[in-house]
Amino acid sequence: MVLDPPLPRPMVGRLAVIGIGLIGSSILRAADARQLAEVSVAYDAAPEVRARVAELGIADEVASSPAEAVRDADIIILCVPVGAMAAVAEAIAPHVKPGAIVSDVGSVKGAVLSALSTHLPAGVHIVPAHPVAGTEYSGPDAGFATLFKNRWCILTPPEGAEEGAVAALTALWTALGANVEIMTAEHHDLVLAITSHVPHLIAYNIVGTAADLEKVTSSEVIKYSAGGFRDFTRIAASDPTMWRDVFLNNREAVIEVLGRFTEDLIALQRAIRWEQGETLFNLFTRTRAIRRSIIEVGQETAAPDFGRERG
Ligand code: NAP
Predict the structure, then answer these.
(1) Protein residue with its CA nearest to atom 8 in ligand 1
(2) 179-182 and 125-126 strand pairing
(3) What residue spans of 41-161 are helical by DSSP H?
């Protein structure tokens, strides 16, 4: 998969990215590949990450403080875990130039919008965003330029956000390869609770349960994992800090969806107990159709076994 060619001239003057992990480094790589910014600046709290970013050469400048990173920046994107957004917003607040756009990539939007609005001064445009793209890997080496290609990026501008700022961020994400959709932060958090947050919780739970089962030795869990367990382990290998913060910051929507999930699970348990084969068959037929429609819209591969190579 390749990105479109570089633009004739950069669409952003100074682009500052804070938190150079999987997502931050992918933004820098994609921006570099398409020459979207005149100057890109990177900052990460960890000195070893800053050194690695300089070594990789994915940013024009590596700043040594949040203040230095955002000075004169036109667009600032916070790519830190959701729980760190408030502290970063507070640290950059006195140094952001009036009229700059401050965005983020957090997987939860309501809590981030309130953290940014609390700390950033008036005259700064807050336009939160969430690229619905990722892998189970973390850190600056995990990123790649095509991560956002043909994936959705959801913008959740607050009421009264300036149209020009929303349009500028839409243009940036489109140039990074994504398809942009706009919705409220509240709606985003409910939709993502069902499509991402609760599925991750289920994966964490089932892998934890299997590890705790006394009768199944861990070597057997690993040996026979291709039976379905393996696919849960990929999701359950996702970054613990990121996912702790997601659940702590999207509590209401996650608890709401978990309530529905638990009821449906109990109904399935009942169907199995009472040998209601038709109930099971009908559900499994419906869910199979959902997977087919995800493949049809290009959000998943149709290759058998998720495109894994067969040995
Ligand atoms: P990551 O690979 O762990 O990178 C996060 C980086 O931010 C780390 O280098 C971390 O340093 C740094 N950081 C933490 N606190 C900081 C602070 N106060 N100031 C500056 N840097 C700080 O995480 P990621 O997967 O890129 O996720 C970043 C954000 O994207 C999260 O909000 C997440 O919800 C969102 N997101 C993730 C995915 C995904 O699939 N991974 C998808 C969409 C959106 P340390 O390691 O030293 O803490």
Answers:
(1) 21
(2) unpaired
(3) 47-56, 66-70, 85-92, 110-119
Give the percent of the chain with pLDDT over 90.
82
| Alpha carbon distance 249, 262 (integer Å) | 21
DSSP helix/strand/coil, 197:
helix
- Residue 68 — φ and ψ, nearest 5°? -65, -35
Are 86 and 112 in contact, with CB atoms under 8 Å apart?
Answer: no
Quick check: CB of 235 below 6 Å from ligand 1? no
Quote the tokens at residue 168: 């500028």
Neighbours of 7 (CB within 10 A): 11
**pLDDT tens digits for 171-180?**
999 999 999 9
Domains of the chain and CATH, by start: 12-183 (3.40.50.720), 187-299 (1.10.3660.10)
Distance from Cα 233 to the centre of ligand 1, integer Å: 21
% of the chain surpassing 70 pLDDT: 97
